[in-house]
Design a protein that fits this description.
Order of helices and strands: HEHEHEHEEHEEHEHEHEHHHHHH
CATH class: Alpha Beta
CATH topology: TIM Barrel
Shape: globular
Bound molecules: alpha-D-psicofuranose, manganese (II) ion
Radius of gyration: 21 Å
Strand content: 5-15%
Number of helices: 14
CATH architecture: Alpha-Beta Barrel
Number of domains: 1
Distance between the termini: 49 Å
Length: 392
């Protein structure tokens, strides 16, 4: 379905201002619990992760911020880190808290039955808000690995009370323009009951907290066959869709490249985002990647992921809204479905290549990266350091 000249210009406008945030941890070594395969040239510290992130933005033009994970990205001076990012042409985005890698958190962090452990976990979250003040970040992302492995292990209801108490303390510490992104995940590492297992639980806590608390949808955190675009439509309608952690999955929380496993699902999600106003110029939805590149090169993996999100977005924007509304009003099931499929089946790669050239970028960022010599340079420069990331 060919869009009119006007709507084509609108589509290009949205694509030109698209903003996809990269995760600092995608650039470090990562793996499974079986093996971390180290790669040459990976960053040795947060400064180098920011440099790699800037390289992805330089080539794609739509990845102007990088999310940090604390303490993986701990430095003495966060203002200096933010200045370093600015010097390289990007900014620091969301601050991710980490209350899942300390021996004290075996039975939970903010929901732990021991008040001393809860205090320690909540203090870390408050420290993350200090980091946000120094970096100028808007969003604090909270993901809790908290949960139980066995029926009876702890009181499910009391754990919700403890969670609400900690969230409320952190919420009270937010500045006027800062937000909590509350992320849910069905299971892992807890295998019986997770304390924030689904969007409904996250949404209910956000409603209790107030307007500055919004839900983060990590596309890898649902049961198989969950209709994620329904969740997106619902949360956008309620004004509580705060962010995405994009990645793709075949089985569990695989953290593979977004759009690799199911590009049709990504298109359906982006259609609901567009339909609900999530791509408007004043959108407050943060579009982030949360991925690990265990076997593929990391910078190239991030570039490919950014391009996959762009392609799904372009296709979603090409859905002929008038034709769809008319078919829906007439109850014409097949015509309505055909409008969606026409957009999904459009090859948007030439459109995006043209957009990049308009922006003064190479039409093919993957080829430009391969030809840039960047990898050869960092492989040479970053010899012998302690490599940062999940494997550290
Ligand atoms: C948990 O699985 C998660 O999705 C959270 O966002 C964490 O902060 C992140 O992964 C770490 O990679
Ligand atoms: Mn995530
Ligand atoms: Mn995850």
């Amino acid at each position: 379905m060919a869009p009119s000249t006007d709507s084509r210009a609108d589509v290009l406008d949205v694509l030109r201002r698209q903003h996809i945030e990269l995760p600092s941890w995608a650039f470090g070594n990562s793996g499974t619990r079986f093996k971390v395969f180290a790669q040459p040239g990976v960053p040795r510290d947060p400064w180098e992760k920011i440099a790699d992130s800037a390289e992805v933005h330089r080539l794609t033009g739509v990845a102007p911020t990088v999310a940090l994970h604390i303490p993986w990205d701990r430095v003495d001076d966060y203002s200096a880190l933010a200045a370093h990012a600015r010097d390289l042409g990007i900014g620091i985005g969301t601050i991710n808290s980490n209350v899942f890698q300390d021996d004290d958190y075996k039975l939970g962090s903010v929901t732990n039955p021991d008040p001393k452990v809860r205090r320690k976990a909540t203090d870390h979250l408050l420290d993350c808000v200090d980091v946000m003040d120094a970096t100028g970040s808007r969003d604090l992302k909270l993901w809790f690995s908290d949960g139980t492995n066995y029926p009876g292990q702890d009181d499910l209801r009391a754990r919700q009370d403890r969670l609400a108490e900690a969230l409320s303390e952190v919420y009270g510490r937010l500045g006027p323009d800062q937000r909590i992104l509350l992320e849910y995940k069905l299971f892992e590492p807890a295998f019986y009951a997770t304390d924030v297992p689904d969007w409904g639980t996250a949404f209910a806590h956000c409603l209790e907290l107030g307007e500055k608390a919004v839900v983060c949808v990590d596309t890898g955190h649902h049961a198989a066959h969950t209709n994620i675009e329904f969740i997106v439509a619902f949360l956008l309608r309620a004004g509580r869709l705060g962010a995405f952690d994009f990645n793709s999955r075949f089985y569990a929380d695989d953290d593979l490249m977004v759009g690799a496993a199911d590009p049709f699902q990504l298109f359906r999600i982006m259609y609901e985002v567009a339909r609900g106003g999530g791509l408007a110029a004043d959108t407050e939805v943060a579009f982030m990647l949360d991925q690990c590149h265990n076997i593929e090169p990391k910078i190239a993996g991030q570039i490919r992921s950014v391009m996959n999100v762009q392609e799904a977005t372009a296709k979603a924007l090409l859905v002929d809204a008038d034709a769809l509304a008319a078919a829906q009003a007439e109850g014409d099931v097949l015509a309505a479905n055909a409008v969606m499929m026409d957009a999904f089946n459009t090859d948007v790669r030439p459109l995006l290549a043209g957009l990049r050239e308009d922006l003064g970028l190479a039409a093919d960022p993957m080829a430009a990266h391969a030809a840039s010599g960047y990898m050869e340079r960092v492989i040479d420069e970053r010899k012998g350091g302690t490599q940062a990331g999940w494997g550290a």
